Each structure stands twice: as structure tokens, then as C-alpha cells.
Amino acid sequence: MRRYLLLFVDGVGLAEASDANPLALVPMPALVAATGGALTAERVGGGDGWRLAALDATLGVPGLPQSATGQTALFTGRNAPEILGRHVPALPGPRLAALLAESSVLRRAAQGDRRVTFANPFSARYFEEVAARRRRHSATTLAALAAGAPMRDLDDLAAGRAVAWDVTRESFREHAPESDVIAAEAAGRHLAEVAREHDLTLWETFMTDLAGHRRRGWTAAEALGRLDGLLGGLLAACGDDLTILLASDHGNLEEASHPRHTRNPVPLLAIGPDAPAFAGLGRLDEVAPRLLERLGLDPG
Ligand SMILES: [Zn+2]
Hints:
Helices cover 37% and strands 12% of the residues. It is α/β, with parallel strands linked by helices. Strand 2 (45-47) and strand 3 form a beta hairpin. Helix 3 packs parallel to helix 5 (94-103) and helix 5 (94-103) packs across helix 8. The radius of gyration is 17 Å and the shape is globular. Bound molecules: zinc ion.
């Protein structure tokens, strides 16, 4: 049985290499070692062990693609912006939450007895705040909870059984002051270990979208540097039966000239033995059905 790891990387579009595209400028040695170059539009296609597809993230709906609908489309294979009639930002409301709970790729894989997991950790305070309605779940968390995947906590993080959204754990220090900052490569090795025990593993980061919006001090260099370090550690440790799928929900970071989302296509980068099966996809809502099919499940 093949295994899959979905790296959900928020806010990364595909654009041509240029002086305004951080994906062409920030050194990403692990990505270059695996694919021979940068994550830019002219590299759509593939090579030995990797494929890159450009996915339409607008899905036929006017306006700028946004996170809640984009992520729901990616994780469920449903055209969420069309269903809601617009691109919905930030966190899913009740309609998108219901779609995710019902038909995410995690839920459907779990129903098909595939071992699924969400590799990100959450603090106890996160769940307290959701319970108190001071915050809402993300699309990923809704999908994982509905799939019955056990949530990872800060003990898992400390033990290397979870990988923080910021890769190196710095943002977790306020929740767990004793938590050590680790190298991005070490986080990648931890992710490989989690993925080894599951048929489908999901991990998410939004540091890339924060960098694109120029929020909370994030820069493209920092976000892409950490992502590449994670990729390096992961690829060195993951073995030859894991296919890594790196996908995004909407463009943002690839246009450094402004801090807003874009209507550019988003990448689906597949690295590993089953990469050819993901070549040539053209839309954000085509990823989940293809992944279900490759897991031997009904994609409909
Ligand atoms: Zn954003």
C-alpha cells in the first residue's frame, strides 16, 4: 500500500520566475535537489520522481480566491466557492464546516479504513477557546475531527510526534515555554515518522500566507527557508513508498509587489513513487478525488 502526505501550504501561487517572485529568489536547496529548480510557473510538467501541476483556484467565481472556500475545495473536491456563490476568507462558517465534516478526503479515507492523521499539534487553550466560542476551527481541524483522527497536543510536539505550523516551534513558546526550538530539518524528520504510520497524513502551515500579507513579522525568506528545511529533513527520512503532495489554496506569496491574494493558479507538487498519477490536474477541486482514487477508494 502506498502512503501519502499532503503538505498544505497556505497562500502560495504559481507565477513566472521574476525579481518580484520570492519563490524564484529565496534559496530552496532541498526543493532544487528533489525537482531540479524553483516552484515557478515555467516548471509545470515534471521529471524523475516529481510532477508539478498548475491548479485553477478561482473555480469560475469572480474575485480573489480565499482560504475558507479554497481549503474546502482542496480537501473535499467540491466547488466550495461556487456552492457559496463567492470566495469566503479565513475560517469556515456552518455551510463549509458541514461540507468538510461530511466529505473531506480525511473523513472518506477513514471510512474506507485507511489510517489518517493530522500532524499539527494544538494547545489545550486552543480547544478551550473554541469551546467558549472565542475562536473557530480551521478547515483542516474540522476535517480531522470529523474523520475521527486523534488530535495531537503539546506533549506530542515535545516528543517529536507532531510538527508545528511554523516548523521550528517558536510560536509555541507562549503556550509551552519549556518547548525547545528545533531545526526545520528535524521537524521534517518528525513528519516523516508520523507519515510512516499512516496511509494519509495532513500537515498545514500558514506562515507563507502571513508572509504574503506581511503580517506578524513574517518574511518570504523566513517562511520559504523553513519550508525548504522541513522538506529536506522529510525527503531524507521518508523512505521510498511515501508520495508527498504540496498544495495551496490561493495565490499570495508569489507576488511580492503587494500584500494581497492573487488569481494565479496554485501548485500541486507531487514528489515520490506515485507522482505521475497527479500530473496534469487543472483545478483545486480535482486533488481530493484523485487522492481517494489512488488510495483505492471511490473518488465520487
Ligand atoms: Zn490570506
